[in-house]
Amino acid sequence: MKLLRRRDLVCQQAVELVTDYLEGSLSRSARRRFEAHLAGCPHCTEYLAQMRETIRLTGRLTPDDLTSGMRTDFTDLYRRWRAEQ
Ligand SMILES: [Zn+2]
Q1: CA distances, 80 to each of 27, 37, 49, 62, 73 (Å)
Q2: Predicted TM-score (pTM) of this structure
Q3: Using an 8 Å Cβ cutoff, are 26 and 20 in contact?
Q4: How many angstroms is it from 60 CA to the middle of ligand 1?
Q5: Residues 6+ apart with CB under 8 A from 7
Q6: Burial class (CB within 10 angstroms; exposed 0-12, middle 13-18, buried 19+) of 80
Q7: pLDDT by residue (tens digit) across 21-77?
Protein backbone atom coordinates (compact mmCIF):
# COMPACT_ATOMS: atom_id res chain seq x y z
CA MET A 1 0.00 0.00 0.00
CA LYS A 2 2.72 2.45 0.94
CA LEU A 3 4.64 1.73 -2.24
CA LEU A 4 1.54 2.21 -4.34
CA ARG A 5 0.76 5.46 -2.63
CA ARG A 6 4.27 6.72 -3.11
CA ARG A 7 4.02 6.07 -6.85
CA ASP A 8 0.80 7.99 -7.10
CA LEU A 9 1.04 11.65 -7.92
CA VAL A 10 -0.26 14.09 -5.41
CA CYS A 11 -2.09 17.17 -6.69
CA GLN A 12 0.90 19.43 -6.20
CA GLN A 13 2.99 17.20 -8.45
CA ALA A 14 0.22 16.92 -11.01
CA VAL A 15 -0.05 20.72 -11.19
CA GLU A 16 3.68 20.95 -11.79
CA LEU A 17 3.29 18.57 -14.74
CA VAL A 18 0.36 20.29 -16.46
CA THR A 19 2.50 22.56 -18.61
CA ASP A 20 4.76 19.74 -19.74
CA TYR A 21 1.72 17.58 -20.37
CA LEU A 22 0.12 20.20 -22.60
CA GLU A 23 3.40 20.70 -24.44
CA GLY A 24 3.66 16.96 -24.94
CA SER A 25 7.06 16.84 -23.26
CA LEU A 26 6.28 14.33 -20.53
CA SER A 27 7.83 10.90 -20.66
CA ARG A 28 5.41 8.10 -21.37
CA SER A 29 5.41 6.88 -17.77
CA ALA A 30 4.99 10.39 -16.36
CA ARG A 31 2.13 10.99 -18.75
CA ARG A 32 0.47 7.76 -17.70
CA ARG A 33 0.74 8.65 -14.01
CA PHE A 34 -0.53 12.14 -14.73
CA GLU A 35 -3.56 10.80 -16.58
CA ALA A 36 -4.19 8.22 -13.86
CA HIS A 37 -4.21 11.02 -11.32
CA LEU A 38 -6.60 13.11 -13.42
CA ALA A 39 -8.98 10.19 -13.73
CA GLY A 40 -9.47 10.20 -9.97
CA CYS A 41 -9.12 13.89 -9.24
CA PRO A 42 -11.79 16.42 -10.32
CA HIS A 43 -9.64 19.27 -8.98
CA CYS A 44 -6.73 18.62 -11.29
CA THR A 45 -9.11 17.87 -14.15
CA GLU A 46 -10.59 21.33 -13.61
CA TYR A 47 -7.14 22.87 -13.46
CA LEU A 48 -6.17 21.24 -16.73
CA ALA A 49 -9.41 22.48 -18.31
CA GLN A 50 -8.58 26.01 -17.15
CA MET A 51 -5.11 25.73 -18.64
CA ARG A 52 -6.52 24.54 -21.94
CA GLU A 53 -8.98 27.42 -21.97
CA THR A 54 -6.19 29.88 -21.23
CA ILE A 55 -4.16 28.51 -24.13
CA ARG A 56 -7.19 28.67 -26.40
CA LEU A 57 -7.73 32.33 -25.49
CA THR A 58 -4.11 33.44 -25.58
CA GLY A 59 -2.86 31.02 -28.20
CA ARG A 60 0.18 30.17 -26.15
CA LEU A 61 1.49 28.88 -22.88
CA THR A 62 2.81 31.59 -20.61
CA PRO A 63 3.86 29.76 -17.47
CA ASP A 64 5.72 32.66 -15.89
CA ASP A 65 2.82 35.08 -16.04
CA LEU A 66 -0.57 33.47 -16.26
CA THR A 67 -0.01 30.20 -14.58
CA SER A 68 1.66 31.57 -11.48
CA GLY A 69 -1.62 33.26 -10.56
CA MET A 70 -3.57 30.18 -11.52
CA ARG A 71 -1.28 28.03 -9.44
CA THR A 72 -1.97 30.23 -6.44
CA ASP A 73 -5.70 29.85 -7.03
CA PHE A 74 -5.34 26.14 -7.34
CA THR A 75 -3.25 25.88 -4.19
CA ASP A 76 -5.99 27.67 -2.28
CA LEU A 77 -8.58 25.31 -3.72
CA TYR A 78 -6.46 22.35 -2.80
CA ARG A 79 -5.99 23.58 0.77
CA ARG A 80 -9.74 24.04 1.21
CA TRP A 81 -10.37 20.60 -0.22
CA ARG A 82 -7.87 19.06 2.20
CA ALA A 83 -9.37 20.97 5.11
CA GLU A 84 -12.79 19.52 4.34
CA GLN A 85 -11.58 15.94 4.51
ZN1 LIG B 1 -5.24 16.18 -8.11
Answers
A1: 31, 19, 20, 26, 11
A2: 0.62
A3: yes
A4: 23
A5: 33
A6: exposed
A7: 988 999 999 999 999 999 999 989 998 998 888 888 887 665 555 555 666 676 776
Nearest to 43 by CA among 68, 9, 20, 7: 9
Q: Give dist(CA 15, CA 11) in Å, integer.
A: 6
Distance 64 CA to ligand 1 centre (A): 21
Tell me, in angstroms, the distance from the centre of ligand 1 to residue 85's CA. Answer: 14
How many angstroms separate the alpha carbon of residue 39 from the centre of ligand 1?
A: 9
Query: Cα(25)–Cα(27) distance, rounded to whole angstroms?
Result: 7
